[in-house]
Design brief:
Elements (H helix, E strand, L loop, with lengths): L7 E3 L4 H9 L4 E3 L22 H22 L7 E10 L2 E3 L5 H11 L3 E12 L2 E13 L4 H8 L21 E5 L2 H5 L3 H10 L6
Parallel strand pairs: 1-2, 1-3
Antiparallel strand pairs: 3-4, 3-5, 5-6, 6-7
Helix pairs in contact: 3-4
Length: 206
């Protein structure tokens, strides 16, 4: 039997996910999906009518890994396992995506202020015809934020490529009163679940 290649493709442009994979010693190469084409992004991250947050994050993650595998084959790249993930922030059944501007970012923080919200991160791994997927849910409780604090934070570049408009590993850490779940999952890649999927695919972690 041919030995399994121990290097994987990471189909994500997130620098946080790269850092987290390196933290547990996983060898990877980037396989980036296109966001700007004549037909739009390779994987449109649009919420379908009536779609619940859990269904949304799991569907988008599946679409990402399937598209990345097709890209790997069409580019005639070395065939390796492909890992991808998607993270969404949800409150009262509403999906809070990445804010496009300061007004949206402040509105999101105002919703999160003084409340507990949920962060869902789904990860998917595909190796040839085999497919694995897991989703981790964490709860994050914010302190009550003043208008001045929200405006000052949203004047920084930090909120604008993050689901929910904040970065748990950045300056927004000072807003967080309590976390129940996975810190790495809130960052975008739950390492416990990621390690489990990689091991199921024959990738050695240690």
């Amino acid at each position: 039997m041919k030995p399994i290649d121990q290097k994987i493709y990471l189909a994500s442009k997130s620098p946080r996910r790269r850092e987290l994979l390196r933290q547990i010693g996983v060898e990877f190469e980037l396989l980036l999906l296109r966001e700007h084409t004549a037909r739009g992004p390779d994987v449109p991250e649009l919420v379908l009518p009536g779609e619940a947050p859990l269904a949304y994050v799991e569907r988008v993650t599946r679409e990402k890994v399937e598209t990345a595998c097709d890209t790997m084959l069409s580019r005639r790249l070395p065939v390796r396992p492909v890992l991808t993930a998607d993270t969404t922030v949800t409150l009262d059944g509403r999906i809070l995506g990445k804010p496009a501007n300061a007004t949206e970012a402040i509105d999101m923080l105002r919703l999160l202020s003084g409340r507990t919200h949920q962060v869902l991160t789904s990860i998917a791994l595909r190796r040839d015809a085999d497919f694995w997927q897991m989703t981790h849910a964490s709860e994050v409780t914010f302190d009550r934020l003043s208008d001045d604090t929200m405006r000052a934070y949203c004047a920084l570049p930090e909120p604008y490529d993050k689901a929910g408009g904040y970065a748990v590993q950045g300056r927004a850490a000072q807003f967080i009163r309590h976390i129940s779940g996975s810190h790495s999952g809130i960052m975008g890649l739950p390492l416990f679940e990621t390690a489990q999927l990689l091991q199921q695919a024959g990738i050695r972690i240690l």
